[in-house]
Amino acid sequence: MITYPTEGATIVPLNLTITWEPIIGLVRNLILEIKGEYLEQELALEIDLPPDSTSFTVPSGLLKPETQYKISLWTQTQIALSGDDLKSVGIISFTTAAQ
């Protein structure tokens, strides 16, 4: 569960630190995606994170002012014979503040 920013938040600062609750279970890593204003067309960031992480600070200059973004957080686990398994643990949308 993503704890900050919250779903539908507005005036989110451009120097954003995303936070979420600890993930419990057999997780190999987390995948964090941030998509821009044209949510399905502009991928701003995709990063693999350690399974015990609970926050990520977005690199300076990545987010644009007064723009809508969508954050997706995924868990990746290893299934013995069938390979990797991805599961969504949180998806939220927010809008950044003016400069």
Describe this structure in words.
The model has no long low-confidence stretch (mean pLDDT 86). This protein has no helices and 8 strands. The chain is mainly beta and 99 residues long. The chain has one domain: Immunoglobulin-like (Sandwich), CATH 2.60.40. Helix content is 0%, strand content 55%. A hairpin with a 7-residue loop joins β4 (29-35) and β5 (43-49).
Widest β-sheet, arrangement of strands:
2-8-7-4-5
Query: Helix coverage percent of residues?
Result: under 10%
Number of strands: 8
Taking pLDDT < 50 over at least 5 consecutive residues as the criterion, the unreliable ranges are none
Order of helices and strands: EEEEEEEE
What is the oligomeric state here? Answer: single chain
Under CATH at level 1, the class stands as Mainly Beta
The backbone outline, from C-alpha atoms, is elongated
Short description:
With about 100 residues, the chain is mainly beta.
From the structure above, extract its key features.
mainly beta; 3-stranded antiparallel β-sheet; Immunoglobulin-like; 5-stranded mixed β-sheet; 55% strand; 99 residues; 8 strands
Topology readout:
Elements: E1 2-4, E2 9-12, E3 17-20, E4 29-35, E5 43-49, E6 55-57, E7 68-79, E8 83-96
Parallel strand pairs: 2-8
Antiparallel strand pairs: 1-3, 3-6, 4-5, 4-7, 7-8
